[in-house]
Structures are given as C-alpha cells and as structure tokens.
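Honest question from a wet-lab person: if I give you the sequences of every part of a complex, can you actually get the arrangement of the whole thing, not just the pieces? Trying it with mine:
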Amino acid sequence: DTGVSQDPRHKITKRGQNVTFRCDPISEHNRLYWYRQTLGQGPEFLTYFQNEAQLEKSRLLSDRFSAERPKGSFSTLEIQRTEQGDSAMYLCASSDGMSVGPQHFGDGTRLSIL
Amino acid sequence: QQQVKQSPQSLIVQKGGISIINCAYENTAFDYFPWYQQFPGKGPALLIAIRPDVSEKKEGRFTISFNKSAKQFSLHIMDSQPGDSATYFCAASRGSGTYKYIFGTGTRLKVLA
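Yes, you can. This is the full assembly:
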C-alpha cells in the first residue's frame, strides 16, 4: 500500500494561466474524490469518480475546472484561467468497497496564484 | 442541513491531559462519522470512525462518543502528548450516493510539554 500520491506538491502560477494536477489513488480503490482546502478551513468536496465515471460535481466546481479519470486509475484536475480565489490546497482521496467507509488522502497540491 | 459544526476552534491542553473536541450535525441521513488528524503541509490522516449503531468506539488513546438523539459526536484524546499537536477535523457522510465527506471547520490542538 503506497498511499495516495499527488503531483506536484506545490504550484505557483500567474493569474490567467492553466494548471493541471495529478492524483494516483491506492491501486485497488475504485472511488476517487477531489477536495479543496483553504487556510483554516476543512476540506470541501469538489468532485467524485467511481472507476472512470464522474458521478458528482460540487457547485464549487466552476466551468473553469475539469477533472478526468481515464481508465479508472489516476485522475487529473485542470483549472483554466486561474483566479486569485483558486489559491488553496487541492486534496485527492480514494476509497474502496460498496458502502461508505474510510477515505485515504494524499498530501495535496498547494496552488498559489500570483 | 449539510453542515457539520465543530468546536472549539482551538484548544490548549497540558501533557497527560484529556483533549475533547465536539461536533454536531443536522442531517439524519449521515451514518458514517470519521475523525481526521492533519499536520501542517500534510493531508488529513484517518484517526478513528464510528457508525450510529454504537455509542462509543475506542482505539488506543482515541475515543469517539456518539449521541444519536442529540446528533452530536465527540473525540476524546486521553493522555495527550506534544506529538498530538495538530488540527483535527470531524466529518460526516451519507450511507448512499457518493459517500462524500462533509467536514467540520477544524480544531487546532496544542499540547504543552
């Protein structure tokens, strides 16, 4: 069990640029979640995949955000035309099973918008 | 109805003392309640979780107490140690659909040596 891996750990970019983050879940986990965490707050749900299907998107996920999970393995989260308000920690989590249970989080990608 | 309210916002405890963090929820459809520990620069790590069919669960120094009628649950850290100094989050999830977590706002715990 190598854990959930996220890349890059830190991303600094100028406002208006596009950024892409990658998440590699625990290998046997079929469920993958993206959350966003701002300073001093708890993580907020962004989107969820079961295998390769994106089954739910939060209203926090504006049209500038897109997520994919091709082949049901790793996932990418892309933010287009970044804005100051996008500065946050983007966390990925994975879980398995057919019912609610523990989600295992990666160490996140911290995005800073200049 | 989707909120999970967590208190206190911060907590200072002497080494060896008991740390208690409380959470309350409104949505009775929630049926899985995990607690996470987060250190600076790291992702949340699962500590312990409970389902509403039990009133208490203990794992080592960590205990969850659950009061279904009051829609409240709490984390007790016994014999608190300086290494426990971190931010703690409660969360809740429904037992159907996507099983996404709704997190509380966090409690920053400092254990004094």
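Two things worth pointing out. The first strand of chain A starts at residue 5 and ends at 7. Chain A is about 0% helix and 50% strand.
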